[in-house]
Amino acid sequence: MTVRAKICGLSDSEAVHAAVEGGAAFIGFVFYPPSPRAVTPDRAAELATIVPASVGKVGLFVDPTDDEIDTVVTRAALDMLQLHGTETAERVAELRARTGLRVMKAVSVAASADIERAPAYYAAADWLMFDAKPPKDMTTALPGGNALAFDWLLLKDWDFPLPWMLAGGLDAANVAEAVRLSGARYVDTSSGVEDSPGVKSPDLIREFLATVEAL
């Protein structure tokens, strides 16, 4: 079974090198200013120059405006948009048409009913992502990167027509179990390879990718 990984929230060259050299299939740049992992379009463009064409460059946005998308896409060489907000299927389709890029729509999950929202995006998106929904009383919660997991078994019996990624609290210690229970073939981590919020650990990135490679 081949499992591939995305390392999200990269903001420095050492972490990008660790992700690329460790075999990441995708790397992610966050364009959401409240996040400690946020980068500017110019910084992302700079970091993108050290990413080979074989590694997908993903830009994470949260309910972006057209101007925000245009500014980033014209400066940073992205391969895919990751929409992590409350975007409707219509908005996903609009941004895919506007940019000509593939789009991955994130679905926040706490219960099985949340996964039932996914089919609405089948025609509009190219990929899906299932991430943990933060509890309402988590006052510091971000749309993603909260080091929270959900019940991976909720995904086990679904047969999605789109490729999809599993996210939410994944690290080297639990990714094998997450893959076993969910059936995921693509996994995404951000907080799970950090020394502190927004500070990536090259060693943890390498460890995570080596664990995924061994699955």
Keywords for this entry:
215 residues, eight-stranded parallel beta sheet, two-stranded antiparallel ribbon, TIM Barrel, 10 strands, 7 helices, alpha/beta
Kindly describe this structure:
This protein is of the alpha/beta class. The protein has one domain (4-213): Aldolase class I (TIM Barrel, Alpha-Beta Barrel), CATH 3.20.20.70. It contains 7 helices and 10 strands. It has helices at residues 13-22, 41-48, 66-75, 89-99, 112-115, 175-182, 202-213; strands spanning 4-7, 26-30, 56-61, 80-83, 102-109, 127-132, 164-166, 186-189, 194-196, 199-200. An 8-stranded parallel beta sheet has the order 7-6-5-4-3-2-1-8. β4, α4 and β5 (102-109) form a beta-alpha-beta unit. It is globular and about 40 Å long. The mean pLDDT is 93.
Give the H and E element order. Answer: EHEHEHEHEHEEHEEEH
Strand content: 15-25%
CATH topology call: TIM Barrel
Over all CA atoms, what is the radius of gyration? 16 Å
The proportion of residues forming helix, as a percent range, comes to 25-40%
CATH superfamily: Aldolase class I
Globally, the shape reads globular
Side by side, the strands of the main sheet go 7-6-5-4-3-2-1-8
The low-confidence runs, each spanning 5 or more residues with pLDDT under 50, are none
Structural class: alpha/beta
Number of helices: 7
| Sheet having the most strands | 8 strands, parallel
Number of domains: 1
Instruction: Quickly give the CATH architecture.
Output: Alpha-Beta Barrel
- Give the strand tally: 10
Mean pLDDT, nearest integer? 93
CATH class: Alpha Beta
| N/C terminus separation | 7 Å
